[in-house]
Every structure is written in C-alpha cells, then in structure tokens.
Amino acid sequence: MKKLVIAEKPSVGREIAKNLGCFDRSQGYIEGESYVVTWALGHLVELSPPQHYSEKYKRWSLKDLPMLPEKLDETVIEETKDQFDVIASLLKRDDVSSVVIATDAGREGELVARWILKEANWNGKCERLWISSQTEKAIKEGFETLRPSSEYDNLYHAAECRAQADWYVGMNVTRALTCYYDTKLSCGRVQTPTLALMTQREDEIERFLGSFYYSCRANFGLFSASYYPEDNSIRFTDENLAKEMEEWKGKKGRIVSIVNEEKSEDVPLGYDLTELQRDANISYGFSAKDTLETLQRLYEIHKIVTYPRTDSRCITPDIVPTLKDRIKALSNTPFSRQVDEYLKNGFRENNPRFVNEKDVSDHHAIIPTEETVRLENLSENEKKLWSLIALRFLEVLGDNYEYRTTTLKVNVENKIFIARFSTPLKRGYRGVSLSSGMKSPLLTSDDEDSFFLPSLKEGDEVTVESIKVRKSSTTPPERYTDATLLSAMEHAGRFVEDKELKANLTCGLGTVATRADIIEKLVQNRYVERDGKYFVPTAKGREVVRLSPTLLRSPELTGVWEGRLENISKGKESPDLFIKDIKKIATELVADVEKSTLVFSPDFKDGKKCPYCGSMMMRSQDSDGSIHFICQKLSCQYEEREYKVKVSSPIASSKKTFSTTESGKIKVVISKKSAVKVPTVYETKTEVVRESKLQYKRDNKERKDFSSFSFSKDRKDSGNATMADFFKLSKEREEERKNRKKK
User: Fold this and answer.
1) What is the pLDDT of residue 367?
2) Which residues contact 115 (CB under 8 A, 6 or more apart)?
3) What one-character-per-residue DSSP string does 356-408 give?
4) Euclidean distance between CA atoms 668 and 647, whole angstroms
C-alpha cells in the first residue's frame, strides 16, 4: 500500500518526490515504491459563486440582497480542473491507503488541501507534514514525525471561516455598492480599510498649510552645536532672533554642562515577512510582492532560507543545535570573516530575546538553512534579499552594542546650544555589517559614531567661529510607500480611537501572507497608482472609501475578525457563532448602502466627457503608452483608446543633370540628396474599444418599428413584406452592428 502526498505546487512536489525516492513521472504526479506525490496549483477548489444558490443571483440587483445561503458550498476551479481530476483519481486507487498533507504549513495551506479532500470525498486516514524549510534533512525528518491531520482541524476551521466571511461581506457589499451607484466598486474587509489609510493621508496632504520656521547651528571650533529653544526641538519662529543670531560670529559662550552616559543597545530580532518586506523596500526599492516572490524562490528552489510566510521574529529551542551548521553554510560568502569569528570564538546562541518559544506561532523567524550557499546561482535580486536575511541572522547571534553618549550644553547670550557625541565601547552586533562591507538597514546617518574631545570641561569659554541660520518650511505628511504601508497595516490599532478596542487590536490588517496581494489588488483595480516609490489614491479609489459603509472603512472590523479567527485556530471559539455574526454584519452593511444619500462623483481631473452618457471618463495609461478613457457607469461602459500615428517623416529628393558625350549622346546623371529634415509629426487617433450599452439600446429602439422600412425595391409599402424580408433586414442590421463594433 502507498501514501498519497499532496504538495501545494509542482516545484515543492518534485523536491519531496526526490527525497522519498519517487522517480516514475506521470501527468500530474510522481510515483515510487511507497509514495505517490502529487500537487495542487494553489487553490483547486473555491467557494461557489452566488448563482450556484439561485438563478436570480445571475443578475445583480439590490432587491436580492443580502445573499445569505445557509451553508456555502465549494466548486472545483474550471481553469485547474484537470489537476483536481488527477488527484481525485489517485485518491480512488485501491493501493492508496492514506494521505499526507504537504501543502504550505499555515492557515491557507491547510485550506488548499482540506477543500481538495472534501470535494473528492476522501474519508480515509490523513496525516500532516509540518516543516519550515525545503532541505533534504528537513523533509526526511518531517516524514519521520508526521502528525495526525486532526491536530490541525481548528486551523482548517479558522481558514474556512476566513474564506466564508470574505464571501458573505465581499460579495454582498460589492454588489450593493455597484448596483446603488451604477458603477463597478469592489470592497473587502482588508482592502477597503487599507485603501482608507491612503485616502486619509491624501486628505491630510491636501489640507496641509505649511509654515516657516528657523534653525541655527554654531561652529565653536572643536565642535558644532545646534540651538534648542525647547528640550527636544531645534525649531523656532522668532524672525528678530534669527536676524540677531546671524551677527553672532565672534560671540563668547560658556560650557554649562557635560553629561556622560554608558548605554547598551539590544541585538535586533530576526526577520518575519513584514519586517523583511519593509527593509527590502527601504534598501532596494522592492515592492512587498517582489520581496515575497523572491523569497519564495530562495525557499523553494535554492532552499537556502526557511519558510517565508511567518509572523514570528524568534526561534524555538530545538533550532539552537542547528545554528552552527547554518553559520557554516555561509562560509564562502561576503560574510566569511564573521563566520570565522563565530566558529572560532563562539556566538550568542541562547539569547532569550531571540530564542523565545512563546513568541513563535506556526513558524519561527526567517533564517538561513544548513544548505551551502552558492551565490553564482542566484539572480541579483535574490542575492540582495538573501544578504539581508544572512546579515540579520548573524547580527542576532552577536553581542549587544555598548557605547558612551556625551551631551554638551553651551550658553551663548542666554541661549542654549547642544551637541551630542557617541563613542563605541563594544561594537557587538554592529560589527557584522562592518566586517562584511554591507550597510545594515538598522543603521541610519544619525547612528554614525562621533567622538567627544575629552580636553573640554564645564566652565570652559568657547567662541562662535561661524554660525548658520536656516529658514525652512514645514512639509506635508509623506505618502505611503510599501514599507510605511506595511507598518500601518501591521499596527492598524493605532488608527482606532476606542481605547478598549485599541488594546485588543493586535492582529492588524490582513496577515503577513496576504498583505502584499492586497496592495497589488488595489493597484490592479486602479484604486491607487504608483508614483515612484509612493502610492497615490486615484479619484475612483477615493470615491470607494467615501461611499463605503463606515464600519468597513475602519481597521476595527478586520482587526476584530483576525482576533476571533486566531481564537478559532486555537479551539477557543465556535466557528458557527463567528459565521452567524458575519451574516448579521453583512446584512447591516447592505442596509447602510441602501440608506445612503451620496452620489458617485469622482473628480477625474485628466478625464474627458463620455459622448453617450455625459459623465466624466477615467483616464488610464497602458504599458505601451496608449491612453484609455473608460466610462465608469455600468449602464454605459463606453471605452475608447487614444494612440499616436506618425504622419510625416524625412523626405529624400533627387536632381537630374544632362551632358553631351564626344559621340553626341546625351548623358543623364541622377544624384540623390540626403533626406530633407522635416520634423516628425504625430497625429492622435481615437479607437473605440468597447461600445456604449446606450448605443445598443438606441439601435434596438430603431429596429423595433419595421413598418417604417421598405423591404424590396419593387415594393413601395411594407404592407407587402414577407417573413423572408424581415429576416433579411434583421441579418443586415446585425452585420452592420458587428462591423461598427470592429471599427
């Protein structure tokens, strides 16, 4: 008898098959003596669409909302049905005795496998492979310690509740908004509050009124110091004082205090996915999705990092014995100098800040595996991301950074100038980036070491050798980048005013595994656009937030949901009670939309008026540079494309010369001149991409009265028309409509 192993994707399936001795390849699976390894392609099964429950749901209508089926069914996804059929047929084989779930070890991975087994009606024995890396050692150890799948039932229930909640709320609110405002508007429990963060920031920027302020820095020869009108601010607004200070060159001052403090800075924590996405965006400009996709390749293909979709920044005690081998794997890399140092003199392997089992959820922090790293096999982006992970791994194994700070205060004309110095005593973990020649994302320009001159003491007189007063203006809040948006999503509780709810809102918007996709979905829906590294909400995106129910715009709803889903995964809450509450919320949200007195009125500043319905069309640019104008009204949906065509180019000219030869023949010489330089001229042309629905309605209206036409040249009146004439006219008009649509 054999075990059927179900991986989440082909690449993982092939790796598992290799380690289990399966080499007989067939369509959609690989077979060996004891195992048959097959794979999903992500989700093969999804929740059934609304029309599955009733014919009336085929048509979007407000009167049919809310849609609240008693129980949600699953449906095989048509595009990947062939692979589902492969798995279903393998489950029916007489020699398959049990199943091993080897999908990603997390909530969504559990759902991928469980829905396949449910749809294929599998009721036999089932085990779970739960590993954090794809190395040969990890796979073999994982198969030696398989667990009963029943131990992960609560995780499955949480995943299913998440999917069903998104269906009930997303389907109902999206249809309600779309039907009520006559335009396609998409809403969701995570994407809408995330979009709201960006639109609120845009509102703050537009409301911002700048103001001027001054700052002053004096050079005292041995050191420089800034004027502090308040303890923690160098800004002041007194214009007269600013002018006075400009004349202070040569003024005498006195050192009124010198304070020395010895401090220690803890080593950083390891990377979870969100923290890595932030640093990759800041250091290399990677988007959240770029980072996740690159990290997935390092994990699946190269096998040199551990499981990517983790929200933990610590490791468990059982990983500690493997740390030395993980360090050795970095020997032939830019980190070799630090590797030698650790292997020779030891490293901090039991730091309770990093080795902390209670702070580890499903998977530990992202760290290197024991696989030897071969940098020549990595792409540039893979090298960059792997370097961040390796650097952080070596940093957390180092000692604390110890340093001395000196704060010096100078009194000039009863104004206090402050200088701060930092002197390292023990570089600790900060030495890792120095030894590798790599800049750590942890360090900023403010962290650079400076040295205090010990010859100075309190009471010493100093002279202002030069002074600079700068006039500046306050700047508006900065738009979100991938890094700052991920932080805002992770710590969404800070945007909630209710103190009690804020204290309990620890889960944030989405999960580490879904945040990148949420951001990309907002871009694809044209709710936000990328402007360099910044996100800029579009006019339509701002309307989505303005028109959405208040409850859906706030992080509160999804934060509470994630907390309850976490409780379900731990067996602390009933899935049925959760879904009952979700249905109630969906009903309330639909009612909120129906009661609205607002109107969909986006401010498309660069749009143009629709020639059919008169509303402003949204402007969108394709990757080829062509411009699309799209009418947002569902009752119209007209779309046109503007593109440029070259209408003139350099023209070549020629000249004929005539001469007579000695024999009396006429000789003709044609000489071509170089092309005349004429500026290239482009003409903008418009092409209809999609006809307006209103145009179809007009055409249909014209066709209704057949009696106004003559169907035959020989007949002066339509009263003599035959059925053949009617069919002929109908066919002609249908052809005419098709030709017009193609133009």
Assistant:
1) 96
2) 43, 44, 45, 46, 74
3) -GGG--SS--B-B-SSPP-GGGS-HHHHHHHHHHHHHHHHHTSPPEEEEEEEE
4) 34
Which of 516, 480, 482, 575 has the alpha carbon at shortest distance from 190?
516
Cα separation, 421 vs 430, whole angstroms: 18
What is the residue type of 183?
Answer: T
Report how far apart the first and last C-alpha atoms of the chain are (Å, whole number): 63
- Closest to 118 (Cα-Cα) out of 82, 96, 149, 80: 149
Domain of residue 288, residue span: 273-399
* Regions of the chain with pLDDT less than 70: 444-454, 495-507, 623, 648-678, 697-743
Specify whether 401 is catalytic: no
Q: Taking all residues of the chain, what is their mean pLDDT, rounded to a whole number?
A: 88
- Distant-in-sequence, close-in-space partners of 576: CB < 8 Å, separation ≥ 6: none
Owner of token pair 């700047």: 475
Catalytic residue among 307, 429, 480, 638: 307
Distance CA 300, CA 322 (A): 20
Q: Which amino acid is at 308?
A: P
* Domain C-terminal end among 366, 384, 399: 399
For CA atoms 687, 690, 695, 701, the dihedral sign is positive
Q: 630-646 in b/e burial notation, b at 16+ Cβ within 10 A?
A: bbbbeebbbbbbebeee
**DSSP 8-class letter at 626:** -
- Distant-in-sequence, close-in-space partners of 121: CB < 8 Å, separation ≥ 6: none
Q: Are residues 30 and 138 in the same domain?
A: yes
Considering the domain architecture, whether residues 234 and 359 belong to the same structural domain is answered as no
Closest CA to 599 of 632, 628, 551, 552: 632
What pLDDT was estimated at residue 148? 96
Co-location of 243 and 120 in the same domain: no
Question: Hunting for tokens 């598992």 — which residue is that?
Answer: 16
pLDDT of residue 449: 52
Q: Residue 308 contacts by C-beta under 8 Å, 6 or more apart in sequence?
A: 273, 292, 295, 296, 298, 299, 366
Q: Tell me if 446 is assigned to some domain.
A: yes
The verdict on 201 and 294 lying in the same domain is: no
Same domain for 11 and 130: yes
Supply the pLDDT for residue 683. 83
The arrangement of strands across the sheet holding 415-426 comes to 461-463, 252-265, 401-412, 415-426, 224-227, 212-219, 466-473
Within 8 A by CB and 6+ apart from 217, the residues are: 224, 225, 226, 227, 467, 468, 470
Bond before 66 cis per omega within 30 degrees: yes
Domain membership flag for residue 158 = no
Q: Which residue, 515, 102, 510, 450, is CA-closest to 292?
A: 515
Q: What is the pLDDT of residue 743?
A: 47
Q: Name the domain count of the chain.
A: 6
**What is the SS3 assignment for 77?**
coil
Place of tokens 């009661």: 595
Q: Which long-range contacts (CB under 8 A, 24 or more apart) does 619-624 make?
A: 620/526
Residue 634 lies in a domain: yes
Q: Specify the pLDDT at position 720.
A: 43
C-alpha span between 22 and 29 (Å, rounded): 10
Q: Report the SS3 class of residue 214.
A: strand
C-alpha span between 333 and 311 (Å, rounded): 27
Q: Is 597 exposed, middle or buried (0-12, 13-18, 19+ CB in 10 A)?
A: exposed
pLDDT at 669: 64
**What are the residues whose beta carbons fall under 8 Å from the beta carbon of 384, sequence distance 6 or more?**
280, 283, 284, 286
- Assess whether 282 and 393 both reside in one domain: yes
